[in-house]
Each structure stands twice: as C-alpha cells, then as structure tokens.
Amino acid sequence: MLVGQPAIVSLPHFYQGDQSLVDAFDGLHPTKDVHQTFLDVEPYTGALLRASKRLQVNIWLQKISRFTETDHLPDFLPFPVMWLNESALVEESTADELKSQLLTVIKVSQGGEYAFIAIGSIMVLVVICIAIFRCQRQRDDQLLHSVNTDDRSDYGAVGSRENTYNNGHSTQM
C-alpha cells in the first residue's frame, strides 16, 4: 500500500504530455482515439450523446539514497499505476426518439419560416396594389376635376351675363 505517496493524474499513456515521459517507459503508445477525454453534445438541445473520461493515476518515483536501484531515476518521474476509462453512450432507441422529436421541431420551424416569408410577401404585394390603386384613383379624380372645371369655363353658368362662343370671343347679353 502506498500511504502518503503523492498521486499524479494524467491522461492515459501520458497522451498530450511531454515526450520524455512516454520515452521513460516501455510499452506506452499514446493514441488520440483510445486515450483522449471527450463529450459529444447535441448542438440544439445540449443533450449528451456520448462521453468518455479517461485518466491515468501515477505515483511519484524519486531517488532513495539507501536503494541503489533508484540511482538511475531522474529527479521527477511519475510512474503509471493504472488508468481508468469511464464511458457513456445514449441507447439507440433514445437517440432515435431524440432525433425524431428534434427533427420534427426543426421541420415545423423551417415550415413556419417559409410560411411567414410567404405571408410577408403577400402583404407587401397587397400594400403595393393598394398604393397603385390609390394613386390611380387620385389621378382619375384630378382628371375628372380638371374636366369639370374646363367644362364650366367653356360654357359659362346659366344666366350669366357673358357667354363664350366663336373661338373664345365673348360678348355681353
């Protein structure tokens, strides 16, 4: 039992550690796929789909003056004792259910986007048609008003003392 001995935690096989640590021991081959810690998170919901926590427990070996077997050790050497792999994976049925529910929400929201774009486009077209109709009506009203005022000036009012005839010459009655 190693009571009171300092423990040092690292990634297994000293993955992403100093190369001198890997070279100090035979049989260590740090590999990303096997030794890294990771989390796979679904980006829309934040649900954890897959995770792996991998740690290596090391003890600190040092030179001991009374034991000549330790004379070759450097001043600092973490000695691997064990490594742990704690992994979790969402079951296939749960992943399918999450995917189904999530895709349904995404499809409905995308359909809503297109519906709002269509409704907005129709509203813009209606406003443009109303504006064109009002401009046309206003122009027609102005044209009608100008025709009415021109008619009055050409023929004069009934009972007026002046009538216009003979190419714009007026005479008194």
TrEMBL record:
<feature type="region of interest" description="Disordered">
    <location>
        <begin position="154"/>
        <end position="173"/>
    </location>
</feature>
<dbReference type="GO" id="GO:0016020">
    <property type="term" value="C:membrane"/>
</dbReference>
<feature type="transmembrane region" description="Helical">
    <location>
        <begin position="114"/>
        <end position="133"/>
    </location>
</feature>
<comment type="similarity">
    <text>Belongs to the CD36 family.</text>
</comment>
<keyword id="KW-0472">Membrane</keyword>
<keyword id="KW-1133">Transmembrane helix</keyword>
<protein>
    <submittedName>
        <fullName>Lysosome membrane protein 2-like</fullName>
    </submittedName>
</protein>
<feature type="compositionally biased region" description="Polar residues">
    <location>
        <begin position="161"/>
        <end position="173"/>
    </location>
</feature>
<dbReference type="GO" id="GO:0005044">
    <property type="term" value="F:scavenger receptor activity"/>
</dbReference>
<dbReference type="Pfam" id="PF01130">
    <property type="entry name" value="CD36"/>
</dbReference>
<keyword id="KW-0812">Transmembrane</keyword>
<keyword id="KW-0325">Glycoprotein</keyword>
<dbReference type="GO" id="GO:0005737">
    <property type="term" value="C:cytoplasm"/>
</dbReference>
<dbReference type="InterPro" id="IPR002159">
    <property type="entry name" value="CD36_fam"/>
</dbReference>
